[in-house]
């Protein structure tokens, strides 16, 4: 969920609606990197979203993706 710190009511719609195992946020452009570990026994995925929550691209990773370094 995303909201302004001045908002008095919490939003009811998720900012990004996806199942994830872990995530990272790029420090300069604000892009979100969501990790999906799947079944933890086969390749997972990295899903990339813009700072406003628009899906950009999905990448196949190795087993159990959990962190990113910028």
Number of strands: 4
Gyration radius, rounded: 13 Å
Number of helices: 0
Q: Could you tell me how far the N terminus lies from the C terminus, measured between alpha carbons in angstroms?
A: 24 Å
Helix/strand/pairing class, anyone? mainly beta
Major sheet attributes: 4 strands, antiparallel
Backbone shape: elongated
Helix content: under 10%
**Quaternary assembly:** single chain
Protein architecture, described:
The chain is 0% helix and 36% strand. The chain is elongated. The protein has a four-stranded antiparallel β-sheet, with no helix packed on it. It is mostly beta strands. The protein has strands at 22-25, 32-36, 43-49, 55-63. The model has no long low-confidence stretch (mean pLDDT 87).
Summary of the model, kept short:
It contains no helices and 4 strands.
How would the blueprint of this fold be written?
Blueprint: E1 22-25, E2 32-36, E3 43-49, E4 55-63
Task: Write out key terms for the chains shown.
4-stranded antiparallel beta sheet, mainly beta, 70 residues
